[in-house]
Amino acid sequence: MTDAADPLSQEIHGPTPRQILRMRAFGHKGLLFGLIVVGLLVLIALFAPVLAPHDPYAQSLMNRMVPPVFMGGSWEHPLGTDHLGRDYLSRLIYGARVSLLIGSIAALISGLIGTTMGVCAGYFGGKVDAFVTFLINVRLAMPVVLVALAVVAILGGSLTVVVCVLGLLLWDRFAVVMRASTLQVSRRDYVAAAQVIGASTPRILLTEIMPNIFNNLIVVITLEMAHAILLEAALSFLGLGVQPPTPSWGLMVSEGKNMMLFEPWLVLIPGAVLFVLVLAINLMGDGLRDVTAPEGRS
Amino acid sequence: MTDALLSVKNLTLSIPTGSGTLHAVRGIDFDLKRGETLSIVGESGSGKSLTSLAVMGLLSKTIKCQADEMRFDTIDLQKANRRVMRDLRGNRMAMIFQEPMTSLNPAYTIGDQLTETLLLHRKVSKAAARARAVELLEKVGITAAESRLSQYPHQLSGGLRQRVMIALALMCEPDLLIADEPTTALDVTIQAQILRLLVDLTREMNMAMILITHDLGVVARVADKVAVMYAGGLVETGPAAEVFSAPSHPHTRGLLRCIPQPGKTERGAPLGTIPGIVPSLIGDVSGCVFRTRCAHASADCRGPIPLRGDDSHAFKCVHADGALSAEGELA
Amino acid sequence: MLPFILKRLGLALLVALTVSFISFSLLFLSGDPAAALAGETASGEDVEALRRLYGFDRPMLVQYGEWLFSALRGDFGESYYFKLPVAGLIAERLQVTMILGVCGILFALLTAVPLGVVAAIRPNSLIDRVALFLSVAGQAMPSFWFGLILIVVFAIQLGWLPPSGAATWRHFIMPTIVLGYYAMPAIMRLTRAGMLDVLNSDFIRTARAKGAGEGRVLFKHALRNAIIPVVSLAAVQMGFMLGGSIVVESVFALHGAGFLAWESIARNDLPTVQALILVFSMFYIVFTFLADVLNAWLDPRMRSS
How far is C126 from chain B (nearest CA, A)? Predict the structure, then answer.
């Protein structure tokens, strides 16, 4: 046999799965951008009272529609003031709270509903599956914006109502994805093995199924969070979501709309921030999907 | 050798990868006359499929293809432009693939797919093309050929689909047929039928055939010539009968030991195996690549390897007799 | 294929029935519809009178049955606000929304499919990157904001297009782009992924081995297979788009069904809202049904089973 120095007989030592995951995560520009921007905005939302230069609700009729500093304004109001003289930057900072709060809680509620439905459908199959699939079909047939608007209008617009309505409406993607993932996982041999040794159904669902579909769940949570944030903004823009004077970015665009002809920045700034947040969350979700894709783990 | 239909000299295929250049095929030669069957044998990943795709001009653009000569009839395949290659493919050279289940387009009928080849290359009416398709389907042993034309691939079994693939390849009566592991994906009983069909058809139509396989049992029955490949290089070439009766390269002998022979292999005796794995072909490769798995490897195996034997039966090994004498002692 | 169509039709009808029940139940979400209708200043007797006038005093299922049978005959009741038959109101407004929806989906398909195909043929090329950027940006773009930006740039700054209304075809350009861009990313991603998948399949290699030219390989052999799932998605997106037209129509003041929905919601005009939810749902149900049938017909594996 040949000696170990022979270049042909050298074995190639690959990195461990965990190392691959880390390498992929740090090499993924979209994921990095998403994580940094979302992280930054979460910090801003958490420390809003410290960071905001002014009270977001304080009106000053003397200082209405002061332009931002890059359009000839002063550093007193870096992003200017709105039609009631409220500091735009402070309202933006507090607006991050509204968006992130609504996005995350709505995604949690719908995630809970959708995951339960999807996992049950995928695991039990048969009639349970048929019923869940039917519910998903019904849900998809309902126009989300219209139904959400109508319900919020009937119940009265408030943060709680908007969060609950969105949470109860956006579970469809969770159900679809979790059903498919569960279906895939439950056909694997280790699930059959658990059934053979007599593990209880809840135990199999929690210890065999859930850990293996968790990656997909995280991805859907981020994407639905983005979806909820966009919908809240749309509802508030239409005047039937979060009610004034709460600083919501959608509402700020709506309030700026009337002055759009002369002060387009009133619309541009909150919309751009909203765009960047949703973009970052989506990139984070897409990145997580790329990085944790099953072929990347084996 | 001027009468060769296909002649390949010093063909090299390299694939740039993240960790260096992968030398998938390194300097192989072979030629083929009309009506002759050449079998290229080797383990998975030895570069046999890539070689056939290179002849067809179907390599993906990322693979670099170089050769001293690659000639089909009078056409220089390296200089041929896309138009010339397109006129050759399906017309004068045709190919059958390993996977009959996925090699047919699921969206079109068998008839559409069969006639397409003929309509691409010949000025014939649709009716004439359909008549030709029926004729060939019957020739490859498909019953109720007429009614099969309107069926879709998913309605046929794997064996039937491979017969359709063969008919497809024969539509224009090609001079050269390349069959890339045509029986690997099929049931054992079907394998023999398909193989017999291929042999009969090549005789009948005086076609040259390159049969790519990892199954030496297949080769013994059908090939005129054999080329044994290992890790991107040719280790032994020669007339099939000679290579089987007097295998010279240790790798060829190793492959032969892996198949049981009626009358020779004792009942209950373990079948031969070749220990080890195919080495990585990334980066510079020198010397004999089989040395990491060869029982007779020595320090000389890292140097240049001479080509031994004569024009018809040749092998590459540092040992003058391919270490055949040493093997006797081992056994 | 007929059993498949019948089964699918049965499902569509069942979904439609369930949706109709949900949209009818909205009326009772506020607790007492009569009180809501009468307003905060009304006296108890007024509320009672209204309750009897609209039949709110009967069991809910009876009311639902009556509403459903009227709806099947095309009678959705009278609008609380406009004091006109709801069916007529919606029919009148639907034309604008349909034009917008058809233009939007055409815009989305005509941009997304070619971009997706080219991106799949040349992965990691400049066009692939541009396509990826467009789809990522499109998914994050709030459509009301995108619409306002278009108005600022093309109507106010450049003066090329009218900012609002539905008088001429030029009024529809910006709304079409906004609505179409909403559907584009998903269609493009699916086209790209489908083409990439198909281009790597064995039968494409067979087509090349036949001597087929690149154009033939790409369009006859590859796209024909890759487009099948795109058809379904386009139908789903069309349904979503009609539902989403409410935002676009309110930004561009297009007086279509979406705008009507916004008006009626803001005015608590529940019969109109119920009818609109039902109508939009029906569009979605019909589109997805037709798409599934078309899909089954396009895919020989389903056609013959």
Answer: 18
